[in-house]
Amino acid sequence: MFERTSDPGRCGGTLPRRSLLRAGCLGGAGLCLADLERLLASGAQSDVNTSGKSLIVLWLWGGASHMETFDLKPQAPREYRGEFAPIRTNVPGIEISEHLPGLAQRADRFALLRSVSHESNGHVNSTHTMLSAYPGEPVEMPPFTPKHPDLWAVASKTLGDRRDGVPAHVALPRLRYNGSAYLGGGLDPFVVTADPSTPDFQVPNLKLVELTGDRLAERLALQQRFDHFERTIDQRRLMDAMDRFDRKAVSLLTGSRVREAFELHREPDSVRDRFGRHAVGQQCLLARRLVEAGVRLVTIDFPCVPGQKAFSWDDHASVWNIFEQMKIRLPVLDQVVSALVDDLQERGLDREVLFLVTGEMSHTPRLSDHQGQPGREHWARTMSVFVAGGGLRMGQAIGSSGPKGDEPVERPLSPNDLLATWYRCLGVPVDSSFGDFAGRPVPIVPNGRPIDELL
User: Fold this and answer.
1) 96 pairs with which residues across the strands?
2) Are 73 and 365 in contact (CB under 8 A)?
3) DSSP letters spanning 342-388
4) Cα 214 from Cα 31, distance rounded (Å)
5) Nearest CA among 213, 224, 239, 191 for reference residue 11
6) Do the Cβ atoms of 422 and 358 come closer than 8 Å?
7) Domains of the chain, residue spans
8) Rounded CA gap, 446 and 371, in Å?
9) Between helices 33-42 and 238-254, what is the axis angle to 10°?
10) pTM for this structure?
11) How far apart are the C-alpha atoms of 40 and 51, rounded to whole Å?
12) CA torsion sign, 6 to 4 to 196 to 386?
């Protein structure tokens, strides 16, 4: 089981200040004054790149068990079915966990994929498999560097920003084991580690503070004195990637659109209360505000909720009692997902925003026992994925698992099929390829087909 690498209680800002404010402002990446003046004059409010749909992913690190959430097996032997009972939803024939009553009333507005399966069985390699379309290798120690670009890097590379001055991808905070691999620099997310549920929440790097436009121009002029020499020795074109990064940084510093999106106090108390005044609730609300502001991709790493023993859905019997921890997590999951589904629909965004709830794997259908404590172990051969919005067909369960929940028996789906569907929805050509580090063309989705039932 992997733990969070940064302290969730520490307000770490977003982009590291050393990276964003090198040389007293922005680092030696050769941002020319003409570009700066253009950004300052426009206020980074241009909409010239507005296009396509947005994606919000609520990531359940550790792997939520399908047997306690979206694919219960009440007729299975007790050592499989566990303690929870299914309840009916507002779609005939679809049942989900009794601890998800809010979602049960909204089943007509989401779809469940109950037959997703892959062969990677560790957290790191499963994450790589789910997000890159290529099986990950077992890795036990950091750094966890992916060999293929993830979903967000591919979408950012292919589609770019939806609006000038607005980052393509905001991470709340960054997910583990993801990255752009051979797609190069400039595709990393804008990372927010601060807890938006705290009264003093702010994103400090979105403010110029005492650095005026004139002082910013002066410091960038100083950088230019070194620019020519740096570029003559730059053999890997790293400066080009830094250029893209710095242009985005200046846009963020000078524009108001993203800064205002982070001002959650603008929301009515009733809306904030509906999402929940905890970290994940306010992250989900913030995600909606960000896509409205023009962010294309938002990822949310489901944090600890009050009473939870650790930041994980990794419910091994040797670690804790799966049912005790699920009774703490599931009501929060029910609240935030229901609230976001409602919110997107009420604001007319349900066709423009694709909302996914998933993790890297599931857990074993058969319960384990550790000194009388029940749990489930790693299992990726059957898992469930929640899908809402994006203009896709809702109100259905696609695929099914066997009577014990151990294997797909109807409409087996691979992570590649999922990725092909998400790419199709976002507008990324599914047959796209990129050159790897050796220049060889590598398809973004080998052997994957969009899920027709959703389209």
Assistant:
1) 87
2) yes
3) HHHHHTT-TTTEEEEEE-S-EE-SSPEEETTEEE--EE-SSEEEEEE
4) 15
5) 191
6) no
7) 1-52+186-281
8) 44
9) 30
10) 0.83
11) 23
12) positive
